[in-house]
Structure formats: structure tokens, C-alpha cells
Specification:
Oligomer: single chain
Distance between the termini: 86 Å
Radius of gyration: 28 Å
Strand content: under 5%
Helix content: over 70%
CATH class of one domain: Mainly Alpha
Amino acid sequence: MEELIHNGVDFSDLLPTINQLKLKEQSYDTKRSLVLCDILCTPEYETLMSIFNAMLKVKEFSERSYNLVTEVIETVPSYYTAYAYKFEIIMHINKDILEELNWLDEFSLDNIKNYQIWSYRTELIKEHHKKNNSKESFKKMLHRENVLTTLLFDEDAKNHHVWSYKSWFLNYFEYDLDDYAAEVDYIGKLIEKDVLNNSAWCFRYKLIMDLINRSKDEQKELLLLEELEYSEEQINKYPDNISSWNYHFRMLELLNNNNFSIKKDLFSLYEAHLNESVYPIEYYAKYLNLMDKHGNQARIKDLYLILRDHRDPIRKVYWDYKISQL
């Protein structure tokens, strides 16, 4: 009787299914009129994928299928079908999800640009949360996820897969106010590391917006004033950074939209950096427009003319458009 042994495990019972799939594949090949490029694979790879396809066909949910699918994913990290099948196996054999997350942590560090690992991770996290939905469990999960994302950000602080995952995590779970404070502090450390990291600035804005939506008026005002002060500190450290200026202006907008008075005159902030970047000029015009567009029309136009004719002529058409809108 023919045998099929892979990595010391007997898969002989799957041979009828494997042969059936091979016949189907050969039948398909004979119908093709032109083969552009035959894909060359090692015998080991062909055996691995044959067993995987057979298991997938019969929907085997077992420890050996779990181990084999793990091998398939480690061999082909972008194979989305393998992740979906592995999740089904975990659900059927009641595999420890934290153990799977531990494996995925290590695997993620070796595949930091892989999209599939994050889609898979969200499903594991959701399933874990269904069974462990206490505040203590959430705080432990938040801590472990921040440890992982910190390691990944050390490799690439602007990895959009990781930032998208953090946004999903924030949207999915219900944070306490102290959880938000810890996250703001965490993001602040990333900004300290690289003030040019626009992803970190965007995520901080998302955190602040969530906090504002959950805060009373006096808390909102205090929070926005603190963030305004924070962004000014970052501007003073690195004036030629549009992220800091944009964040600063967003805080001004939020103060204005919530009917909080902007008590300080910000001219000195803009004036201090006029010779260091075009952003102070652009955002001072935005500030004047926000405060009193009609009363400041002449000053705003002068700033746009300076940008158009001297400091930022590459965007001449844009500045002409802005002038036409006054």
C-alpha cells in the first residue's frame, strides 16, 4: 500500500483525495491551449501543498492539520486561504488563542509588511474577547499589543499595516479614560522618537477626538488647551514639520467649534519661525481666517502673496486659488 509520510507524520489516508485533485488538475492542463510559464516547485513544496489542498478539500480539523497549515503559512506567508483555514481549525479543536497569538507575534516580527497577519490577528483577538471580556483581560491585551507594535515600530515607525491595526483595536474595544491617557503617553513617546511621523500625529488626533466625545465641556477645554500647548512645544523643536502645524491648527479648530475662546494671540509663535519654513506663513493665514475672515482679509491676502511670489512659488496656482476665495 502506498504511503505518504511528511515530517514524520503519516498522511497516507489522504492519498485518494490527493490523487483525485491531481487528476482534476491534469484535466485542466490539457484544456489549456497555451502555457505561458510553468511554475517550477521543489518536490517537498509540491508534497506540502498537495497534503494541504487535500485537507482543505475534506475539511480536516485536527492537531496534524493545525501543524501542517502552520508550516504552509511559514512557507508562503501571504497565502490568505491558509490563514482562514487555520482559524477554522482553531475554532473546531478549541486551540488556546493566546498560544496562537504568541506564535503570531514571532511570525509578525519576521513579516512586518504582511497584510494577512493583521487580518488573521483581528479575528483571533475578537474570538478571545468573546470569552474573556473583563476589564482586566482587556488591559492585559492592550499591554501585549503595545509591546508588539512597539517592536514593529522600531523596525518601521510608519508601517501602515500596524497603524491600521491599532486604529481597529481602538475602534473595537471600549477604552476607559485612563486607557486613553496611557495611549496618548505611548503615542507621545513615538512622536518624541520621530516628530516627523505623521502616522503617530494622526493617531494622537484620533485619540483626542474620542476623548472629547466622552468628556464634559470643562474637561474638553482643558484637554484641547493642553494639546495646543503640546503641539507648540513640538513646533518649537522642529518648525519645518507640517504634522505639528496641522495638529496645532486642528486643536484651534476644535476649540472654536466647541465655542471655547482662544485667549492667547498666536502671532508670536508664527513670527518666531517665519524664516525657518513656509508652514508658519500658511498656518498663520489659516489662523487669521479662523478668527475673523472678513476683518483679516487684507492680512491673509498679503500672506498668500508672500507665499505665491517668494516663499512657495511652486504652488502658485494653489495660492492664486486661495486668493480668489477671499
